[in-house]
Structure formats: structure tokens, C-alpha cells
Amino acid sequence: MIVIAHRGASGYAPEHTFASWDLAAAMGADYLEQDLQMTREGILVVMHDETLDRTARRNGVPCTGRVIDHTLAELEQCEVGSWFGPTFVDQRVPTLDEVLKRYPDANFYIETKNPEEAPGMEENLLQTLADHGLIEPARTEWRVLIQSFSEASLRKIHAADPALPLIQLLHRKWETSGSIRRRLESIAEYAVGIGPHFSDVDAALVETAHEHCLSVHPYTIDDVAEMARLDSLGVDGIFTNFPDRLLATLPVDEPRGLDALRLAADAYARCRRKSAQET
Fold it and tell me: Rounded to two decimals, what is the model's pTM?
């Protein structure tokens, strides 16, 4: 079971901050997640929302407006921690480059967020990964997974580099187990896995996804009983705001970190080879 720290250990610290990722890394999460937005000058920053209003403050007053309408210098005047608690007032909007530099040994689960509103996001992401020497480790060891709700964004990345591992996110509002299963053959053309809402995951979905060599990484689960249900169904990874809770449910001798990711990458490659031989 792969443990994906949703926006970091965001149950304990403000999402997408160094405080949150530091804690998730210390807990032993296999992946640190990042949601990408782009500044006005095209710099990739890590923030979930398209706008600043929910999490960003300046001297106690909300920073407002779309991220993409601000320069990085303007974003640097905002902090993104005090909304969660006063002890986090020093937390700032991080760039993707800063995140990759701070955690040279970590594994990253990166989402292209609102890519239609930020032309060039995919190219910028691939260049940033290349600058940090992460393209080949992503291809061979799954050190980086790239996810999106946007099929167009994922297909664009796949066209640029077919060996990069991609995850198709699926909206709870628009999908069910049955509708997702009907899409799996198409998704398998460009992705190595799916990210459904946990409420849409049942035995039929997991079984059919695995038949298509697709990993199943449901989001976002903080309840231990629900974690156990999903584990019993055979999901391959779980997004959680509380990585320590999920880790406490797993066998202590289970492979973690890069060992777990290499096993997942190897299993995918074997499945695809077997599938090709059977057709």
C-alpha cells in the first residue's frame, strides 16, 4: 500500500507548506503531493486553489484574486499558514523549484491544476523535472507521478514523453464505479493509474482497473475504518491528510518509499508485457 500525503500532512499543518511536507516526510509517507498553479510570469507555485482567498493572508488581511493574475513577487508578500493556526504565520507560497530542492530524496505526486487556464503548465513542469534530474527516475522508478482531472493535460504530457507515469483523477460528482469502469480502456492508453473518490471504489472497480494494468489510488481518506475497507479491496495506494494513521494500519515490514514505488513500477511493466503477449 502506497501512502500519499495529501497536500502534505495537512491534517496537522497548513496544506502545501514546508511545515506540512516536513511532517509528512518525517512520518514516512511514500509520496508528498503538490497541486500546481502558475504565476503571471509563468512560474509554477504550489497551491490547491485557483484563487488566493481561502488560505493566503497579508498582515491578517486576505490576499485575493487568481494566482495566475499575480507575479511571484506579489505572492511572496502573502503567508499561507495563519488561516490554519497562529504558529504557522511564517509559511509562504512555495515554488515547485523550491520544493524539489528542499526534498532531494523525496517522491512527488504532482497535479496539473486548472491547466486550461494556464497554457504552458505541462511544458514548464517537464522542464522543471528535467532541471532536477527527475525525468528518468519518474519513468523507471515512479519517483514522480503526474496526476490531473484534465484528460487533455495528461494526454499532452503523454505525447511529449510516453514513458512518464500519469494518473487520471476522477470527479466524485460526475462518476460512479460503473462509469469509471467504462472509461478504463481509454485511460489505459495514456495513464498507469486512476485516482477516484473513495466513495466510488468497490471490488468491481479495483478488479477491472487491475485487468487494465491500472493502479488505484483513491482520495482522500482519514477514517481508519475506511482505510481498512479500501485495503481489503486491494487498492494500491491511498491519499490521506493523516499519513501516520494510514501507516499505523499497515504491516511494519511492508516496503516503503522508493522500494515500494519500484515494486509498483515493475508490476505495471510486467502487466503490460503480459497483456501485449495475450493480444
Answer: 0.98
